[in-house]
């Protein structure tokens, strides 16, 4: 069963590296087995080098860097199974205003081949929607409002 | 095929029949804290047949039924329908529109329907699996990213192992 | 020792109610002892009624509502000891664009009697700063930039 | 009295001497993920005498010294100074400006100074306690709010109990 694990591990690691590179410009990341001879005796470490910094384990990164790395890891796992519908609920909470548009671009890319539904509080995610809805609540009852996406500013 | 619309009725904070048309591409849902955004995500999990009420933040399935304090009688069941445009015939059902509906009553019992005809949960799961590759893993629920941040290296290996 | 606990409990509960009311318009919240006869046999429950909704325990609130409630609880505990310096690091991550300005206003109020240092990723918190600094990083070395607060738009 | 300036030198990602003037009211610090914002908060905890390196996200105190891979020699110590304007005489020190400095060396040993004169940690704590009511509880560190969200009712009671 080690072979099955290693095949999966290699592919997730590859996906993880690609996705991390897209979310963190100039950055690199990879999965590392703590115990290479017998994977089941150790865990899986995440080593990353966000743009311009030296490589280090995820545990010593900042809050937002950890969040980005965790997101890339989850997306890497998802990539193992093709899906026609993705649902993401507030995956951007800890990211700064430079990272969020990168997440938006990645989500947009996903939406070319699959359907994507995203819940967010952030404008830069809302601005790339094909359809945008606002949820309202009055006296404990929720309702939906369809929001028009207006283009502001220069193109 | 693609999902064209979600319909909620008596589901969590959506007391009245609420329709949400879906984009073929990217649909974004915004709104204030507590307005009901994650409840829509729960509705999707629900109609796709997920078996854990806790995942939908309910103690038991009957808690998914709208409960309001406003004097109006509470609904007796919660219902969610997911409509698919099947013009490409990708779903092995002989109709241009395919509707999956799940209803849960006050006893927590679920009833599944395919184009209004009653079916078993397994029928729905088989259908979705074949034509739509829909599983629990394509959902990132609120708090999942934070949960993965707190994970240690052993947990990560176990997750990859489960996938293998 | 029950008296000491009860006195503290009452005061924290009072602070908590006041702060919650300020952060959640039209909302009410209170602390409830699970076991009133002997507080040490149970825990402390939080019951809240965010504006316009019915009262319920914090465990059944939305992600952002839980975050707001937790923040109010922490601030209520802090109010027990007067302090001349407060430091808040990213307390606004899960709050929507209507709540964040309320947090900004509360922080501003604190800063009238004490010094406050706030780390944030949000514009609406930066916009109420008396002094604003941006942290930069180049080749793994951090630096500080003093940012001018320009008034945009109408007053 | 009020804090007028923080100075960092060789502390975590702040290799070079960095001054941050503080407002008497509200000072806000922004910047990208990983730029060093929380490291400034750690510097404040450090200079105020906090005893747990883990709270400052370091395995041991010597980890607080800047470590870079850029070929330049790493500093031998990390130092943070906190300047106070003492024109109102609120701090029982006979000077208009009061400076608290803490330095940690590669062995993890801390040295405290008050206006450049070496003092004990207890001297600093007593001074701050009297004139500034500064304690660990006025800090909300990154992740604390999320930690309180995950707390259960028993933990909450214990926290209130500790305060009593
Ligand atoms: N069965 C129910 N009947 C009525 N209201 C319910 C029911 N279940 C949950 N709710 C309400 O739904 C609201 C939570 O909605 P939801 O979690 O979708 O918010 P949200 O928009 O995702 O907010 P956030 O941005 O904070 O995550 C709560 O106010 C809760 O009381
Ligand atoms: N001793 C050290 N020497 C050099 N760099 C260090 C040292 N300790 C920590 N760092 C670096 O400091 C950075 C983390 O900074 P910090 O946690 O302050 O970021 P932040 O601005 O708060 O980000 P976020 O918005 O994501 O919370 C990391 O890149 C880390 O590698
Ligand atoms: Mg939510
Ligand atoms: Mg930080």
Q: What's the overall average pLDDT of chain B, rounded?
A: 93
Low-confidence stretches of chain B: none
The main pleated sheet of chain A reads as:
3 strands, antiparallel
Strands side by side in the biggest sheet of chain A: 1-2-3
The helicity of chain B comes to 25-40%
Helix percentage of chain A: 25-40%
Mean pLDDT of chain A: 93
Major sheet of chain B: size, sense and barrel closure? 6 strands, antiparallel
Give me the Rg of chain B, rounded: 17 Å
- Hey, which two chains have the biggest interface? A-B, 71 and 64 residues
Structural overview:
The complex is a heterotetramer, with two copies of chain A (155 residues) and two copies of chain B (164 residues). Chain A has four helices and seven strands. The radius of gyration of chain A is 18 Å and the shape is elongated. In chain A, strand 4, helix 3 and strand 5 form a beta-alpha-beta unit. In chain A, the strands form three sheets. In chain A, strands 1-2-3 form a three-stranded antiparallel beta sheet. Chain A is of the alpha+beta class and 155 residues long. Chain B is α+β, with helices and mostly antiparallel strands. Chain B has a six-stranded antiparallel beta sheet with strand order 2-1-4-5-6-7, covered by helices on one side. In chain B, a hairpin with a 2-residue loop joins strand 6 and strand 7. The model of chain B has no long low-confidence stretch (mean pLDDT 93). Chains in contact: A-B, A-C, A-D, B-C, C-D. The interface between B and C is medium-sized, with 11 and 16 residues. One magnesium ion binds next to helix 1 of chain D. One magnesium ion binds next to helix 1 of chain B.
């Amino acid at each position: 069963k080690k072979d099955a694990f290693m095949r999966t591990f290699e592919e997730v690691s590859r996906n993880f590296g690609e996705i991390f590179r897209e979310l963190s410009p100039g950055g690199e990341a990879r999965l590392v087995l703590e115990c290479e001879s017998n994977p089941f005796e150790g865990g899986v470490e995440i080593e990353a080098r966000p743009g311009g910094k030296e490589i280090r384990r995820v545990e010593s990164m900042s809050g937002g860097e950890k969040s980005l790395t965790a997101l890339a890891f989850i997306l890497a796992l998802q990539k193992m199974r093709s899906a026609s519908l993705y649902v993401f609920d507030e995956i951007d909470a800890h990211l700064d205003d430079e990272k969020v548009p990168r997440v938006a671009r990645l989500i947009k890319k996903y939406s070319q081949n699959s359907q994507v539904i995203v819940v967010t509080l952030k404008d830069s995610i809302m601005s790339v929607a094909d359809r945008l809805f606002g949820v309202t609540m009055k006296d404990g009852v929720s309702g939906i409002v369809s929001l028009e996406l207006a283009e502001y500013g220069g193109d | 095929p693609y999902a064209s619309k979600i319909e909620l009725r008596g589901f969590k904070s959506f007391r009245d029949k609420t329709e949400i048309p879906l984009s073929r591409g990217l649909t974004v849902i915004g709104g204030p804290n507590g307005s009901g955004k994650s409840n829509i995500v729960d509705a999707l999990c629900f109609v796709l047949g997920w078996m854990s009420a806790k995942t939908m933040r309910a103690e038991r399935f009957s808690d998914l039924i709208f409960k309001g304090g406003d004097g109006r009688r509470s609904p007796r069941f919660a219902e969610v329908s997911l409509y698919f445009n099947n013009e490409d015939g990708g779903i092995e059902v002989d109709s241009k529109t395919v509707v999956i509906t799940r209803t849960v009553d006050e006893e927590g019992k679920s009833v599944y329907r395919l184009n209004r005809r009653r079916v078993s949960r397994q029928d729905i799961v088989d259908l979705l699996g074949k034509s739509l590759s829909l599983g629990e893993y394509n959902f990132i629920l609120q708090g999942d990213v934070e949960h993965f941040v707190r994970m240690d290296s052993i947990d990560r290996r176990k997750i990859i192992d489960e996938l293998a």
